[in-house]
Amino acid sequence: MTFNTGQSCSISGVLANWKVLLGLLIIIITTSIRSYIRLSHVPGPLFQSISSLGFLKTHLDGSPHSEILKWTQRPLIKVGPNSVITSDVKTVQRISGVKSPYSKGGWYRPFRFIKERDHSFSMVHEPSHTAFRSKIAAGFRGSAEMEQAAFGFLDEGYDFYGFLKWNKEFFSVAATSAVLPTLARAAQLWPFRGALPKATDPAGLGKFIRHSEEVVGARYKEGPDGRRDLVGMFMKMGVTKDGAVNQTVLYLTSNPRAYKILLSELDKAKADGLLSSPVQSSEARQLPYLQAVVREGLRIYPGGTPLAFKEVPIGGDMVAGYRLPAGTQVGMDVWGALRNTQFWGEDADLFRPERWLNLAEARFSSMVECLDLQFGYGRYQCLGRPLVFMKMNKTLPELLSRYEFAIVDPVHPADIKNAGFYLMNGFNVVVTVRA
Ligand code: HEM
């Protein structure tokens, strides 16, 4: 008797479980169909229409760039049920323009790396962002002191505070979780937020924060002293990434012809007394082949490829010829723009600095505009952009005219992963002092 009752209970239990499972399945199927229908008219792989998992996986592998380049050559592609990316420069300019009704999307959230404290990049509240940006912008304007600040890590010769190591690890995690806004939100909640850097950490950004707080605190105690460095400017008004230089050296060492032309330009400029030591960026800007190398280096491997999703405003919008409903996340497809064969020509995948030389003004401007897509545009444009060019203009001539570089392992020269920025490891070179 007891046995029979037990058996009938377990059968009803099984039935109840089946009902739950069936209910869940119906919810998943209806949500997937609704997700699919929402952006079914936008081109992109079918799986991306119903889930962001495929795109998330490319980020976990550090290879969203190679995946996207397979689908690209289109002005708009779908990368998730509610997300698209565009390589159309004019569209990005319109979306990021000063008067645009678009706003920053959930993608930015995981970049808030200090608990409850936003920095300009992670700040999604538009009026606060505009006010904060205008305060810090002055600190980013070029000056001799800023040129010096850019070389702090090089002067020391090692990664003090373990900041560069932290930087690499953080960007991998942040750029990956940014693909799934729910994941991004969870990262800011207990218990995960405990992992965010704090001033008491022995290394990484935490230690860097402590040092910055000490320096700024001491400077406030001293009172304004008119020093024209970054701290001084931020006090008055309110990091650098090395990938671009490394990748350009990699491409130069693999292209002996371009490497030779650049060296003869640098040697001649030195012999003619046109370059001081260290080289000033104003001097470097007068060397046409060096400028072509800097731009081609940033084109073939952009310094950064943040998707920087913005949200379509109420009422929806026409983007690159497609109607997008309100709330759709529109990101930048920097890879697609910089390797587009229709724009750059059939040799878009080749490192060829000559493509930047002897151009009509209109063509040159549109190439520069396309190259600049990697820095964003308008009210969000990267404040470190001048610093990036300054650094390339100073570092490349210094390194290349003093030393000769040869790749240790030409079969596998380096590990390059993408985490919004390219992270390069194991780029081993034989360095010889030039005669
Ligand atoms: C090649 C290297 C770099 C690339 C490709 C790059 C690209 C970008 C992009 C795409 C954005 C966001 C645009 C948007 O939200 O739509 C951004 C924002 C920003 N970048 Fe960079 N960046 C680079 C290096 C730097 C450096 C070296 C610094 C600092 C010294 C810097 C400081 C900033 C700041 C402060 C913002 C936030 C601007 C704002 O919120 O308005 N960046 N960057």
TrEMBL record:
InterPro entries: Cyt_P450, Cyt_P450_E_grp-IV, Cyt_P450_sf, Cytochrome_P450_monoxygenase. One of its GO terms (molecular function) is oxidoreductase activity, acting on paired donors, with incorporation or reduction of molecular oxygen. Keywords: Heme, Iron, Membrane, Metal-binding, Monooxygenase, Oxidoreductase, Transmembrane, Transmembrane helix. Heme binds at C382. The chain crosses the membrane at residues 20-37. Its cofactor is heme. Belongs to the cytochrome P450 family. This is Cytochrome P450.
